[in-house]
Design brief:
The chain is mainly β and 149 residues long. The chain is 6% helix and 32% strand. It has helices spanning 130-133, 143-147; strands at residues 10-13, 32-38, 54-60, 70-71, 80-81, 94-105, 108-114, 121-127. Strand 4 and strand 5 (80-81) form a beta hairpin. 17% of the residues are buried. Bound molecules: S-adenosylmethionine.
Length: 149
Amino acid sequence: MTALTYTPIGVFRTPYLTTQAIPKTLGQAPTAEATIEIDPAYADGLLDIDRFSHLIVIFAFHQSTAKPLRVYPPGQTRERGVFATRSPHRPNAIGILTVELKKREGTRLFVKGVDVLDGTPVLDIKPYLAHFDCRPEATLGWVEETRRG
Ligand SMILES: C[S@@+](CC[C@H](N)C(=O)[O-])C[C@H]1O[C@@H](n2cnc3c(N)ncnc32)[C@H](O)[C@@H]1O
């Protein structure tokens, strides 16, 4: 298949300088605050974004070094297929985050709910739409077992 190339539209500024510093929140959503600095070239694309309380951010795991098809999630003793995990190490090192948009100042978005490194390139942003994106009936798969304790 054809290789695809993307140009980042911005960058995450987060409190995390190393992956070890990021809390592993398998059973719950992350809560850390951060900013997303959008390249001014894309400023026009932010019109009306602050009318949404939550955003979906698509980003590149730019420090990912491997592309295994089987992984051990943090703290787990059972191997899982990479597509059954949120591992940063995957064939296309792309991640997604649903974040709360606290405020916007020009091309800076102040958000809450991140678990990514400072400097993580942002590829795209979309509004979180509850009627599209929220699935209360969704099962947790193998993650359910980790929440039972
Ligand atoms: C399990 S992933 C989940 C990320 C996102 N919530 C998702 O579902 O795509 C989060 C972990 O990826 C790693 N990570 C975060 N930012 C990264 C980056 N820019 N490059 C490589 N690994 C990163 C850290 O170990 C972090 O704890």
